[in-house]
Give the backbone structure.
Amino acid sequence: MHINTKCLQEGYKAENGQPRVLPIYQSTTYKYDSSEHLGDLFDLKAPGHMYTRISNPTFAAAEDKLAAMEGGVGAMFTSSGQAASMISILNIASAGDNFISLSEIYGGTVNLFAVTLKKMGVEVRFVSPSMTDEEIEAKIDDRTRLVFGETIANPALKVLDFERFAALAHKHNIPLIVDNTFATPILCRPFEFGADIVVHSTTKYLDGHAIAVGGAIVDSGKFDWAAAGKFPELTEPDESYHGVVYTKDFGEAAYITKARVQLLRDMGATPAPMNAFLTNLGMETVHLRMERHSANALAVAKMLKDHPAVSWVSYPGLEGDSEYELAQKYLPDGCSGVISFGVKGGRTAAMKFMDSLKMAAIVVHVADARTCVLHPASTTHRQLTDEQLEGAGVKPEAVRLSVGIEHIDDIIADLKQALEA
Ligand SMILES: *Cc1c(COP(=O)(O)O)cnc(C)c1O
């Protein structure tokens, strides 16, 4: 099936006489005829739901849809994108371990990595794509467990050089984890370019209507944990399950199974069935929306580039952009809806522009069907030091514009009148 068809047809499959549309199983609990059956579930010997903190038929169906869209062997929904990023790391790194991350990533992820994971004893080592392979490899040692990056960095809009970073990671027998939030599997499927694990903030385009915070982890099933010899938590007995060995008992789904039955169980960052239902609904139309978001954003980027009140425009789909070549290679179907640009006159002019918009709303969000704007330096990236801001590619005068799916003429008219003001 084409991915557009998968958006509609994968996941929930109604059987004879069942509801046509995915039901919301608003139940914490599941009934069993025998305690022996339930005991087998607790020992992971039989498949099935036992408690909604770990799994639930509504989010299981949405997970199957996303796994099919990304081309993975399994997916796990979480309560937020932050929880997905956190679990994706802690699933294979413990106190004393470290990992490599591109520095140009979402500000919330920078906080998670540099502050909270540090407190747990897991050290992040930031790298930049401008560094040579030798400089990056100098940061990898025998306790380095993974490499992390974003397909299209939020808000720096840098495109990940998948093949380069997958090769670097695999040379050292560690996986590449990619946050694919801005591209969605419609515009880029990281597993096709060597990534091993994908994470999402489903809050963004997958939902697409700004109604449900959520996250997801998807496992390609391709990374050979046993051969790598660095992941004892996956290859040695788990005492919390009477000695289950994930790579032996779950094969290529070892990583995603452990994430669920160990970390979702213990940390409880579980999605609500209602939110999974809403996200599932969003995923059914995401292929249509990404097409329109991308076309509208490219038209807006071209208009801004020629506008006298604009000092610079950053959009990977714009010819001449620093990311254009990488985008042509990895994002041939479109570069998503987010643009960043500078208003001449610096920080104050940027804020005046935003306050003059009539249709586009000032919100702490991106990837909504409605056009919206944000000033990263004073909001999402407020907690970062000047040095970290620079590392994340955020300029003080930068406006982050999330182009919606309204008619292009109305979007451009609103932006033009605000720039003139
Ligand atoms: C928003 C976002 C996150 C965090 O997701 P939440 O759902 O807000 O927790 C992570 N990564 C990227 C790229 C994001 O845009």
